[in-house]
Amino acid sequence: METISIINAKDYVDQKVRIGVWLTNKRSSGKIAFLQLRDGTAYFQGVVVKNNVSEDVFKLAKEVRQEASMYVTGTIHEDTRSHFGYEIEIEDIELVGQSEDYPITPKEHGTDFLMDHRHLWLRSKRQFAIMKIRNEMIRATYEFFNKEGFIKLDSPILTGSAPEGTTELFHTEYFEKDAYLSQSGQLYAEAGAMAYGKVFTFGPTFRAEKSKTRRHLIEFWMIEPEMAFMHQEESLEIQERYIAYLVEKVLENCDYELDILGRDKEVLKRYTQLPYPRISYDDAIKLLQESGKFPDVKWGEDFGSPEETYLAEHFNKPVFVLNYPKAIKPFYMKPHPTREDLVVCADLLAPEGYGEIIGGSERATDTEYLAKQIEDAGLNKADYEWYLDLRRYGSVPHSGFGLGLERAVTWITGEDHIREAIPFPRLLNRIYP
Ligand code: 4AD
Ligand code: MG
């Protein structure tokens, strides 16, 4: 007899197997007990029929509590009534760990309660589905960039630089010096691109944002590809192919999980069709003004979440907004060749109200220009000499971008809030568990 995982039940129909499981819920009468089981690979039902098992086993089936762990032994049957399609008719139960009164019950709980019990909440079915999809997106990310000839380069977490501005930095001490938790691996990725051509970083990034929104985490994971000998237009093509690839792989490999979440797969399929529309910042402003819905929108300002939602809904697909005003973007972006008030950059806005999922640009290559930009941004030039060296020794046109993993997971899974997209979210004033 084999010990198997629930997900493989389809290969063992009418065979006797053993599975290590936790109990998620149960229902029983005098003659039969239905145990809802999970093992981390899937959820299915175990049936214990009083007349077919020993008295001890039936007693145990009635005594096990929610989240108790056990080995169940029995025969796999097809179960056309359940979405999963299989169940196990249990003959024997070996209790491994009985459970105390489990705090998370099938009834409704408030968000704060669930967040306080995040370490247990992760066991629930929706969280399971989201984490599996997150995992698939991570897997597909490595696959995509490796196929495209990128190498993964690890950027440091402790750093002396602040690429995305000084207002949202986590400060710490580094022996006698100041250090920050990384906001972005980009500047190091640029060094990597000059060394190895095409690289991507993928690591945790930190923003001490005082904002409490559905889209902001304090700690989030970012994928930052950086490509040497590449202009922005070609970078946009990589970006859209990457996003379409993520959606395709989730559709291909996470059908069960998308069903658990009730995510509309036809809608997701639309996002695999390329190209994504492109609109300039100038035209986006006009579109918003002409819609009559945003009377206060002015050229020169960053978009808020209602504006981003409107733009992506207008195209019904992810949309690139190109060439924002220089004044609202970071120091490293390439100045526009004919418009000195713009930079060569793009944000990719996701539809269905999910907002910006990618920020990227072509990078400035002129040493003097960059040095001035660094000083104008209120940064200490000495801390960026190494970055300026990248321009001093064989500078080339290069471009890159950053995808916020949790923003993308929230969008693809169709969740309302970004806190669902990471196992242990770090939110404003929350660091437990
Ligand atoms: O637009 P951002 O700040 O760009 C950068 O950090 C660049 N260095 C990227 C690059 O060109 N290499 O951040 C990039 C993405 C955003 O589009 C968003 O998806 C995500 O990171 N992001 C956040 N996700 C969750 N919580 C936050 N507080 C986020 N801030 C940015
Ligand atoms: Mg951005």
From TrEMBL:
Single GO cellular component term: cytoplasm
Q: Say where the protein is mainly found.
A: cytoplasm
Q: Record's CDD domains?
A: AsnRS_cyto_like_N, AsxRS_core
Specify the Aminoacyl-transfer RNA synthetases class-II family profile domain's residue ranges: 131-433
- Source species, domain of life: Bacteria
Catalytic EC class = ligase
| Compartment annotation | Cytoplasm
What GO biological process terms are annotated to this protein in UniProt? asparaginyl-tRNA aminoacylation
State its Enzyme Commission number(s). 6.1.1.22
**Entry keyword set:** Aminoacyl-tRNA synthetase, ATP-binding, Cytoplasm, Ligase, Nucleotide-binding, Protein biosynthesis
UniProt catalytic activity: tRNA(Asn) + L-asparagine + ATP = L-asparaginyl-tRNA(Asn) + AMP + diphosphate + H(+)
Tell me one Pfam family matched here. Answer: tRNA_anti-codon
Instruction: Give GO terms: molecular function aspect only.
Output: asparagine-tRNA ligase activity; ATP binding; catalytic activity, acting on a protein; nucleic acid binding; transferase activity
Question: Quaternary state and partners of this protein?
Answer: Homodimer.
Query: What NCBIfam families does UniProt report for this protein, alphabetically?
Result: asnS, PRK03932.1
- What family classification does the UniProt entry report for this protein? Belongs to the class-II aminoacyl-tRNA synthetase family.
The protein here is known as Asparagine--tRNA ligase
Which species is listed as the source? Ligilactobacillus animalis
Classification lineage: Bacteria, Bacillati, Bacillota, Bacilli, Lactobacillales
